[in-house]
Design goal:
The chain is an alpha+beta fold. Helix content is 52%, strand content 23%. It is elongated and about 50 Å long. The N and C termini lie far apart (52 Å).
Length: 147
């Protein structure tokens, strides 16, 4: 018997220039990273998202639908833009979203994690999606600041 098929959306984030930020900020980079994660996690949860993992300065979350993932990304960008960062830097975070249908009856191998399975499926799409969504949310946040 086939399982129920659902649409899921995955959101990936990555801090632009994180290596340079780490070098420039030194030990203060840890606080920046924790604040960044907290702001984005709050935005993700507000729109029904669940943070599945993090690696370095990247986050990976899943949402029940694509619309909520986009709304969370937009709110996350606004929160990041409004935050005060060390040395007055403008923290830039790339975000990308992709969607897939998933059956509740299909389970990945026991050795797989959501992060590794999804990376193998979406690696090629990720950089394009990150760049595109970052541009859209950046433009939207500039527009929203004038409203």
């Amino acid at each position: 018997m086939a399982g129920r098929v659902e649409m899921l959306a995955f959101l990936f984030t990555d801090i632009e220039g994180s290596t340079n930020l780490l070098r420039d900020l030194g030990v203060r980079y840890r606080t920046l990273l924790l604040d960044h994660r907290s702001l984005l996690k709050t935005a993700f949860e507000r729109f029904g998202g669940q943070l599945l993992g993090s690696e370095g300065d990247s986050l990976f979350a899943v949402f029940p639908n694509p619309k909520d993932a986009l709304l969370a990304a937009a709110e996350g960008q606004l929160s990041l833009n409004e935050a005060k960062w060390p040395d007055g830097i403008a923290l830039k975070v790339r975000m990308g979203r992709t969607s897939t249908s998933a059956s509740r009856s299909i389970r990945p191998p026991a050795s797989a994690t959501p992060l590794t399975e999804t990376r193998s499926c979406f690696r090629k799409q990720l950089s394009w999606l990150l760049a595109m969504l970052s541009q859209v949310t950046s433009r939207w946040s500039r527009w929203a600041s004038f409203v």
